[in-house]
Amino acid sequence: MSLYAFLGALEQGFVFAIMALGVYITFRVLDFPDLSVDGTFPLGAAVSAILIVKGVNPFITVAIATLAGMIAGGITALLNTKLKILNLLAGILMMIALYSINIRVMGQPTTALLGYDTIFTPFEAFGIEKYILTPILFAIILIIIAVILVWFLHTDIGLAMRATGNNMKMVKAQGVSTNRMILFGVAFSNGLVALSGALVAQSQGSADVNMGIGTIVAGLASVILGEAIIQDRTVFRAVLGVIIGSVLYRIAIAVALSFKIGALQMTPSDLNLMTSVLVTIALIFPGIRKKIGLKI
Amino acid sequence: MINLENIVKIFHKNTINENKAIKGINLNIEKGDFITVIGSNGAGKSTLLNIIAGNLIPDEGKIYIDNKDVTKTPDYERAAFIGQVFQDPLSGTAGNLSIEENLAIAQKRGEKRWFAKGVKSSDRKKFIESLKVLGLGLESRLKDKVGLLSGGQRQALTLLMATLVRPQILLLDEHTAALDPKTAAKIIELTEYFVSHYKLTALMVTHNMKQALSLGNRTIMMHEGQIILDIKSPERDKLTVKDLLEMFSKVRGEDIVDDKMLLN
Ligand SMILES: Nc1ncnc2c1ncn2[C@@H]1O[C@H](COP(=O)(O)OP(=O)(O)O)[C@@H](O)[C@H]1O
Ligand SMILES: [Mg+2]
What we know:
- The complex is a heterodimer.
- By secondary structure, chain A is mainly alpha-helical.
- Chain A has helices spanning 3-29, 37-53, 58-81, 87-106, 121-124, 130-152, 156-164, 168-173, 178-204, 215-229, 235-258, 271-295, and strands at 110-112, 206-208, 260-261, 264-265.
């Protein structure tokens, strides 16, 4: 792999790790399998892109995109807790609804950002190449978010949220509204996913209504890869695992795409198949390790 | 202090499976009462405790805690007044969280939770002192995941968590039934200690008649959704296990008579 491709994979690994941390909150912390992310990822992208085109400061558009994701996630949570719709279905409903909403937001299926200022513009003045600048900037944002997340999961409300995903009966008996925890958690999660979407849109120079397809699988792949590699779960190690999982996942994709066996060349459209295979392998990995451990 | 007025609970109301689990119960729990609850399977003991805790909402009747109507108060809000220990030792704690994190959650029962640090170093000192009381060596394992503990250890921890913030009432639903006899005895010993040490009001469901008479100051017997015996010390002191068993077979016998009469 060339340095250029490697940096590209790092850049993707970092920015999608923000999304994967959102998936970690719902799937692992809350035990709420939330599929809204396939809709909130492009929502973040769409909101940020359209606001940039309208002349809003690119940094502020990221904040508003995050907020939009939180609201969408909050609605998913309410569909589940107030209207008693199965969590999986609530997420699917939100995902489908967001497809239409995202087109409404942009007024069209795609928005190009060519020629507009983005969050990268002020840093380009330092004369750093964009392919180096972007991964550095994403890494900084990712670290800030990871630190906030680890801190949050150790606060009173964070403990209650983690317990909610573990034992709702205990949480209620200790005076916590599990509905409130689900609301906060799913909103927080989708805020991160939308934030990730906004950053991706700005770095690739466009938002597209279809850019969310497969988000959940990629996020899950990162979470599971991380778990296969880093075991013994403390919150810190779990968060670190998600980040490492995300980076490895993008490197694996880059490697796979560069392979050519005879006339067979992997294309980006094969990604979803590869991801499914990868998730399957990662899922059985701890089992394999145990087996080998027993033999020795 | 806690008043139940004419409580009725019907499961699967207006269906073919309609089941009147509680049939108009009145119960006045005085401050400091330690009540043991006995009754055959399906008598409605768990349902009664769940109604007090707010896990179930009664179809009729009112519940007052300190003259405050809490009939419609959701369980998590009522938890401010109530400590609960369940039959399943896994139910009262979060296995994925550490011992100190579980205690930190319990320490905030009835308070607002926001962004304060969950486990502060000052908390650790308190937790160590509290855990020592259990006599299980858990005070040196603050950072261990609760999932690593045995059922008995988890139940002891649950008991501690239920009383860490002193509850107005402690609800114990056959909380030793899933444990081996030695562990069960230890948990009973701890229960007695916590109740007397903090002068708690408690309601304890048990299958052990001897225990029912030796623990606490008051015993109620339930049968088919009703309270058929409510006896306090000193009268209770004269009662023997044999008397209780006779009462049991008597109510069961009357069932048979009822059935026979129905058949005729
Ligand atoms: N959640 C429920 N749904 C339907 N029926 C229930 C439920 N809980 C209890 N019951 C029924 O209510 C009656 C009383 O049950 P319960 O309170 O668990 O009895 P006990 O604890 O005295 O053994 C039983 O007939 C039981 O089948
Ligand atoms: Mg029961």
